[in-house]
Amino acid sequence: MATLISSNRSRGVKNSLAKWLITLGGISVLFTLVLIFLYLLYVVKPIFESAEIESKTNISLHLAAGEKVLSTGVDELQEVGYQINDAGSIDFYHLKDSVKGASNAFKIGDSALSTSLLESDDFEDKQVAQVVNSFSANKLVHTVTGKTLLVQPNFYATYDNDVREIIPLLSYPLGQNALIIDEQETPLTELSFAMNDELIIFVGFTEDKRLIKTTYVADDDFGSSNDGYDVEYETIFQEIDFNHQVDEIKVTPDLNLAFVRSGSTVYVYELNEEDDANLKATIVPTFTNSTTQLTSMALLSGSSSVLLGDSNGSVSQWFEVATDNGRKFKQIRTFETSEFNNSSNAASNTNAISAIYTEQYRKSFYTMTETGLVNVFYTTSDAHLWQGQLVSGEPEAFAIAPRANGLISVVKDPANSNKISLQTFSVHNEHPEVTWQALWQEVWYEGYPEPDYVWQSTSGSDDFEGKFSLVPISFGTIKAALYAMLFAVPIALTAAIYTAYFMTPGMRKKVKPTIEMMEALPTVILGFLAGLWLAPIMEEYLPAIFLLFFFLPLATLLTAFIWHNLPNEWKDKIPETLAPVLLIPVLMLATYLAFSLSGVLEVAFFQGDMRQYLTNDLGIDFDQRNALVVGIAMGFAVIPTIFSMAEDAIFSVPGHLTSGSLALGATQWQTLAKVVLLTASPGIFSAVMMGLGRAVGETMIVLMATGNTPILDWSIFQGMRTLAANIAVEMPESEVGSSHYRILFLAAFVLFIFTFVFNTIAEFVRQRLREKYSSM
Amino acid sequence: MNKWFKSGAPWIWMSAGGVSISLISVLGLLWLIASRGLSYFWPSELYQFDITDQNGAKSVVIGEIYEREEIPVNQLAHLDLKLDPNQEVLERLLVKTGNRELVSLDFRWLLGNNITNTQTPKDLAVIERTTHGNFYGYIDSVVMDGKEVEQSKLPELLTRVEEFQDQIDELQKSDIGAINYQLERLRLKTRKYQLDNELTPALQAEIDSETTALKQDYDKLEAELMGYRKKISRDHIVMRAMDGQLVTVNFEHILKVTFNNQLNVFQKTGLFFSHIWGFLVEDPREANTEGGVFPAIFGTVLMVLLMTIIVSPFGVIAAIYLHEYAGKNALTKILRIAVINLAGVPSIVYGVFGLGFFVYMVGGSLDQLFYSENLPSPTFGTPGVLWSALTLAILTLPVVIVSTEEGLSRIPSAMRHGSLALGATKAETLWRIILPIASPAIMTGIILAIARAAGEVAPLMLVGVVKMAPNLPLDGNFPFLHLDRKFMHLGFHIYDVGFQSPNVEAARPLVFATALLLVTIIVALNMTAVSIRNRLRERYKMLEH
Prior knowledge:
Chain B: It is a multi-pass membrane protein. The structure holds two protein chains of two kinds. By secondary structure, chain A is an alpha+beta fold.
């Protein structure tokens, strides 16, 4: 008895355990779907987040009386920062929280790393007038007496007991002696430069109002220099004819152009000829408000665009655009730093852009006003990423970290002019190039004549900007699905109607599984046949394909007519229910006829070759793997899906409805059209929806049967690239966590949502229909 | 006529036409794949064409005919041919000429009217080789160990080489492979000790001595291998190619020498089957364009097996829940919509999910936790067979659920009530009564899932399939089953060879053969599933009465 009770108890436990396990298993299906949804969303989400800037560290420093900080910077990992002051010394500081000694000064041994840059005897007065930055790590130090030094603060990592430490290292690519930039050695009020391995070009404006261009041509290579020996180079001095005041000069990093700003006019000079500098263009922005003036200028990464900031707080982007009259500088877009642009305020100049800082690799930029208001923009996506006050007042010096994930600024203490603080900020701004607008609207890319929808994710060149418009690939998806449906729906639905309504049960039992067998065929095989077998055939027998659209229905009608006129005893022998079988040889014959007529037609109408006729005479581009091929191949893939579900819907129309209709004297066809199809129409609709869902997500067929070019063209003779194929092609080579990777996830998410909607509607309609049938 | 149209009869015929077109396309597709695929294995005639081109230059072309086609003459107008003006079409032949070391293209088009003479000489031979593809030509001489011998010695010499080749393969794959594997494990062990700060000099010495021992073994085996290599390359054949040039083909590269034109039908049939066998069990050669597909078959089967192990319990449990436990509430409705949606989500989306979630997130974390000695080269944090199996398991889950549920719904409720009335608990009823009866339905679901998984390619391209896997995921080295390895797959093989290989023309027959194999497997699986289901339906019908 005791054993029975305990076994009963264990049975009960087992029973409820089983219940819980099974329930858990059942819910896990839902869990999986939700997991997929949430995971895709989790990966996609960061691209739509706007930038965040947080304060990281703040170090207080003392300067000698009267000293001023001119430039600052930080290493890639933001562990060591530096400042260059007008006494000509560069001081390095630890930025990590763990302070090594007072004031965070970087120490090697016991001595702080504070180096005087102007050691050479050439620099008689060690008062620095300006420090000129370039897109590389190089900086020019220019003294008040017109002496110049090229210096490069570098950092390298050492590993001591597996602990990483960043060590600063100064190098002087052209040696420690003063460089001669102006032939007459006059101090320069404005100076800009850019360099590559063979050339350095300086453009400067002297105190005696001459605009000069100086070129250093390396005998060997500027890049290979060590501090051990001096690099040999040849110097070419030039003067550019210019009789205005100069406010700012910028030389593009590719050494092609110099932008010289004089008040509100920007003069663009060509530098690519070694002993000449031609005025290429003048940029004169127009302002709505007459009092507005240009206040700052900067170059965007990639050497193509120039940014102009004005006193009204807006920044405009300009680049060269091919027009009918050659390449012209055009204002592409404008960024407003203040939402409320009231002109009364403009006079006080608080809105004026005092400086523009651009990132080294991306097309982001930071604007600064006198009050220290910072705005962050990304040009291509037209995104206003951040606005706020980092420090009070305009900083003495400001720099963006090399990886663009941090900022460093030097601020003077308002109370004590000998005290400055070195502040760092961390920037979270990984995907500024992606915005909803940039994905779905036309974007004007640098070098393009007009805004356009472009998908081009990778390229060979380094300063390539990814162009991520989902429009061409979404268009491709719709185009492929549409052509497939145009082909599949008529065939699948007619086949479903006949099989469900007219076919004998014996034949239906064989025909239905055979057509459904096609659903099991791997799409990779359909794609392979489409790409390597069908596409060449279609290219060769193009007229035949179009003939088939007429021949097949005509042959069917002809057979029907002949059968109709047969004597009755023949009709008894070959009943109408055998029609599908009878038609097989007829249709094959029609196909054969179409193909044998193809050559004749080409000779008669298309000058012997329809393909060439299309391209040469009609100007229609022809790809071998085109929408027609995809339509047919993918059509075959969706025929069984549509057929199977539509057939089910028609077959399960309650018998008494049809019997009633027939009893009232309607013909078979009338019953079908007016009763059966009408009743089954929701089911047919849901079948088509399911088919569409499958066509939208199909990957392999499109991948193999089209050229995968992301173009916007409805032409049946051209290919396309679909969302799914795009993922398959580009996912394996996209960098994890990059914008490209996340956009591909977004493409998958779009597909997911798209099919989710279609499937849910279809399933909903089907469930309703099932209830309706059972109530009849 | 008008009356006839009004009666609707033409439209009925039109809809019958839809059925016919569907049938023609299904059967035509299967026939196309079968005929093209099988003809790849059939030893074809070797032809010698004497060619005189329009400039009068004469040449000889030897090879197999791949394709014949008729083209309208005016498409060739640019060639400036001297033709009979009444001729409208021209025959063109695609001939595989092989001999890749002599000519860059091993296919060439011949125009029918340039061929002055066609013959099938009996002594024309085709040599299948491990490099440079097939060689077509006449055997000039057979050289054994530097001395010319009679041609009749050829089979004997080939057998000798084949034996050595087997021994070389054995050495390379299992013995040397095992040593390399153990060396790698030792390196990782050292690294692990280092990371854990447990590497003592004693341990280091132990590892060093093991390494030295292994290296000694390795040297020994390598010497042995070199010995075989030397033996194998002792003999060679001198062949005369179509342009009369003499070419030396070393025996170490020769797989098979056949005189196709001397074979009778039975010999050809024998060769046909031996080709099929070779296709199934051999490794691919020459960037997958020649040889067999064994690793692809193996990879497909292993991945599908793993997937079945994962998907079956989940699918069956979910179906049982939906049919036996779930009440008529909103949750059930949502669950059903979830199942339908899982079935409808495009497969590439599963691939993306698998890559991001399984490979990078789960796999990456596993690497951090258990395989840190291997980093930065990933172990599980990279596409592999386990992740492929998991991804496809999610993909095929709805297939198993739908099929199992259908089976469950056909079991008469009287059986459940009977069991419960006799005092069995619900779990016992399930386990003893319902599941055994539903097992064929479950079987059907699993088979359909396998068929689906075997043909799916798109997601696998992201989560684990490669064009050429150096090692099978299953081998003689502990732990034998390497779930982290990448694998080859029949479907991907088709895509890769058909679209990514440099010599598509040469690879096309092989792609057709692979497609035939895949279609055969999938159609067979589907037909089995359908027949099981049909038999099951009959049985339930009997139960009901």
